[in-house]
Amino acid sequence: MDDGYRNTANLYHGARDIAREANQQSRNQGMDDYRYQDGNYEGYIPNDRYYRGGEESNQDEDAQSDATEGHDEDDEIYEGEYQGIPHPDDIKAKQKKKSPSRSDDYRDQKDLMAERLEDEEQLAHQYENIIEECGHGRFQWTLFFVLGLALMADGVEVFVVGFVLPSAEKDMCLSSSNKGMLGLIVYLGMMAGAFIWGGLADKLGRKKVLGMSLALNASFASLSSFVQGYGFFLFCRLISGIGIGGSLPIVFAYFSEFLSREKRGEHLSWLCMFWMIGGIYASAMAWTIIPHYGWGFSMGTNYHFHSWRVFVIVCALPCMASLVALKFMPESPRFLLEMGKHDEAWMILKHVHDTNMRAKGAPEKVFTVSHIKTPKQIDEFIEIQSSTGTWYQRWLVRFTTTFKQVWDNALYCVMGPYRMNTLILAVVWFTIALSYYGLIVWFPDMIRHFQDDAYKAKVKIFKHEHLEHVTFNFTLENQVHEHGKFFSDKFFKMKFKNVIFESSIFDECYFEDVVSPGTFFKNCTIVSTIFYNTDLYHHKFIGCQFINCTFIEQKEGCHLDFEEDNGFLIYLVSFLGSLSVLPGNIVSALLMDKIGRIKMIGGSMLISAVCCFFLFFGNSESAMIGWQCLFCGASIAAWNALDVITVELYPTNKRATAFGILNGICKFGAILGNSIFASFVGITKVIPILLASSSLVGGGLIALRLPETREQVLM
Questions:
Q1: Ordered structural domains, the chain, with CATH
Q2: Global pTM?
Q3: Would you say residue 411 has pLDDT above 80?
Q4: 8 A C-beta contact, residue 686 and residue 199
């Protein structure tokens, strides 16, 4: 274990002991932080600089406003003076009078951490009451839709590559290995992005970092639609995935800090619906756009902008819309208070209060908060240092400081007092991701396998046929020609679709303008035959003998075939799977605060495991689609509860970091699930089903060891 982390852990335990002693002394002196009369919050006692409510606060505000009347324009007036906010200089002066014995600069590190821990606990309870005073209304619903678009962009990103693969593999001549890498690269990017952006959001701010991640995603997602080469396209999708990887951790941390305890579980669950909407949006757009070959253009012979590229741009629209709307939203006041930015936080909370009160028809209601507790800032010397020196030194200091803070935060979540909760959550996130993402890839692959088997069962076999001076100008499909003889035949402007010629002879034949998806010539003898403008490349001739044959102006590149299904099955299955989670979303939102997060996770994962066992009876396309919808609908409640409990288990300065770590582990489980489950398609159903069900059962049982959080305030 790292020495720096050991020192931090020792300081934490020493600070915790000091904080406990301080709290015990406070209890002995009979100091209560909160008083309630007739069910209403009275506020903090007036001498401790904490939250004040009731009529006394209003009188103080009026008195302070009156006192400022008549000031000359040249007088220095504090911005918040009219709102009754004490000037920071006055607060600092009082703090110096209370502790003249020693300066904060020389205070023992344990004392500083103890004071910060005590401040954070007081702030948590005070902030909860402030949010309750602000109410739940127009502001939260506006933020709900703005952040919902960002979450929708995350859902779109998961599906977009799968939808374009059937077309992109022909447009870019992708091999099987290239297709597999393209399918996994987005998850790799999202895994890295979750770690990076989650950690930065706890140091730089929720709004700022979310905007950066969305801008990165929107830029490279749009750029990927224009690039022609596979390598550059892969790179763009990787960076796009890194960008959107920050969406999930930051969105839930951001929104939760504007919600009261009674509203948090329900409304975070409603927010999860936007991930489902993203899947529906991607499926509908793919179904609408990709089959229309005419929705594109070409520039010469090398640049082609086909309809699937239009679809890629359309899929970036939710991200762009969220990015624009986010500009009009404020930073999280809870984060600002953690950073010691009291006045900014106060103004935002007042804005939230006034917005909600105006919407409720009570604009005259006054925001009664005069001062909010801010935790002791231990890293003040770093801020001073980072504002001096040359621009290069300032940038280097800020970068190294931020990196160290993010790294220490991550270590604290993994090896500090939260390590057991982090370990349990990591197992639960990994097991549900392994099962869910593995099965959502396995379902359409299995359905396609059933279709392929049915297609092959209808194959037409022709043996020992003899054709001479025949012109073929129509499509031959799903046929096998064995030991045939073709003399002076002409194949003109036609298509061979899944046709096999085996041990056949072609003598003085002519092929012109022929396309041949899925067509191969095996052990054939081809004599004095001309191939002009065809896609009959050498790899399609297996063990064949050529005698005096000519290939002229073969077709270049790969060619889209829009008479094929082009992934219609993928669109349909994904659309139905996304739509099927709607009932589960509604149920989880309504019951989240009633039955608790732990029971929701355990129950949902166990029910999903039972659904997996019924897949043994899925021997047809319709049955497989039905079981997929049932599985997705049952598992969504566990996903929602996991999002909620992950937000609630960690303090504000660790919340996005921990969520990012766990979401990164989730994406790692998705990568393994995609790779493992896809490898068993057409081989056996037993291993994927047993692996998915056992993972869900194990994760659900382990989740029961987590603490219930529905009654606690956000620390």
A1: 138-329 (1.20.1250.20), 460-552 (2.160.20.80)
A2: 0.75
A3: yes
A4: no
